[in-house]
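Thread: "does anyone have the structure for this chain?"

Original post by V.I.:
We have the sequence but no experimental structure in hand. Need at least a predicted one for the grant figures.
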Amino acid sequence: MTDETFELLNPAHRLMTANLLAQEALIKSLRDARVTAGLTVEEVAARLGVGVEIVQQVEAHEYDMSLTELRQYAYAVDAFIEYDVEPGET
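Reply from O.Q.:
Generated one for you, tokens below.
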């Protein structure tokens, strides 16, 4: 068995990958909400009281936001985040 095959079969690796993909989808949804609301990166930054570069980093998946920051970002783009937790198979 190769290392790559082992990683694909490893439940902990699958769970880590699933969480990463869910996080990426959440950030994409927040960006889409910003665009749908007709807001620019500059406007969201102003609403959040942060620099434009922070919003750009968030949308480029280069800034790891806390749950509080996620809620604030959602509020700034007139969006709602629904959390869902499912048990993993580790």
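V.I.: this helps a lot. Helices lie at 3-9, 11-36, 41-48, 52-59, 67-76.
O.Q.: and The chain has one domain: 3-76.
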